[in-house]
Amino acid sequence: xxxxxxxxxxxxxxxxxxxxxxxxxxxxxxxxxxxxxxxxxxxxxxxxxxxxxxxxxxxxxxxxxxxxxxxxxxxxxxxxxxxxxxxxxxxxxxxxxxxxxxxxxxxxxxxxxxxxxxxxxxxxxxxxxxxxxxxxxxxxxxxxxxxxxxxxxxxxxxxxxxxxxxxxxxxxxxxxxxxx
Length: 180
Known about the structure:
Oligomer: single chain
Largest sheet: none
Helix content: over 70%
């Protein structure tokens, strides 16, 4: 059995490194984004991945990997926004944002480890296209919950859906790295 924890950490390191570089370039401008805007950003990336998986011709020279990385980073931003709320001006230093990033990823990884234990790493037998579809399904759920002002009757909240999306995107990146 592969060492999922180490593979997970390697994927997150790549995502985190890009997050830090973008924070250096742009600061925490993302802090002004409302949750539906972040949801739509993730949705656009997931739709592009689905298009790449279905279309024979690709016109933009960026593959699935960069889009899955973007999904992970936007989801982490959304999880931070859920806790901190939206601001009118960027308000986080690089160190503060990185600390929050690490906290959110730690929670998502623990959820993954718990589910991996219970499901026996079933994701390893899944196709990347199925993981993409699950991400899109979770995003449609998030959009509905947002339209319901965050209220659910019996379902998980927005945070749990975003954590699952992070984990599905990590799984997809692990699969893609193993297929090279």
